[in-house]
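User: Show me an example of a complex going from sequences to structure tokens.

Assistant: Sure. Here are the input components:
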Amino acid sequence: KAGVTQTPRYLIKTRGQQVTLSCSPISGHRSVSWYQQTPGQGLQFLFEYFSETQRNKGNFPGRFSGRQFSNSRSEMNVSTLELGDSALYLCASSLEAVELFFGEGSRLTVL
Amino acid sequence: QQQVKQSPQSLIVQKGGISIINCAYENTAFDYFPWYQQFPGKGPALLIAIRPDVSEKKEGRFTISFNKSAKQFSLHIMDSQPGDSATYFCAALGGTGRRALTFGSGTRLQVQP
């Protein structure tokens, strides 16, 4: 069974730009969660989608958004990038948002 | 109240020794407590998890001990190996209307040969 696939793995953007990250969950998993990992703040919850509906949202500004498609694939978008958005963005899939399986992440560098 | 406090921040253990990492939480609504292992450049991998109605769970060399009254849980790695060198995160799931993991700050484990 294939794991969680995240693309791109690495990307560099400049301040003010926007970025879209993609996540393909494990086959059969309908819940997709996104987390931000930084050395200073650790792992922080962004949002969780289930069957194309956002069920939970973390304490991030509105510049961070996401969506889920009918095939359970998910994307997250960050607009008007700031230096502090540099982080590893992790996607996790699960059957019911309990046992989470993480992808390898997308490492975003904002210059 | 959503915090999970993890200690120590780093840990050095000799090969064959026991590694112990501790976590404490405040929110009694948490109902699922997983541990994740993360290697450099990789995403966290689920190692073992426990629910609050169980005091201990063992899987191979990994054991979770859970103390509900003290609101503490710990990971024990028996017969630690150099391949266990990684960062370990405890986490807790649950809370009012919120199905999201709250992570501890992580413990960097180094097992010396």
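The lines above are the inputs; the final block is the predicted structure for all two components together. Residues 31 and 96 of chain A are 6 Å apart (CA to CA).
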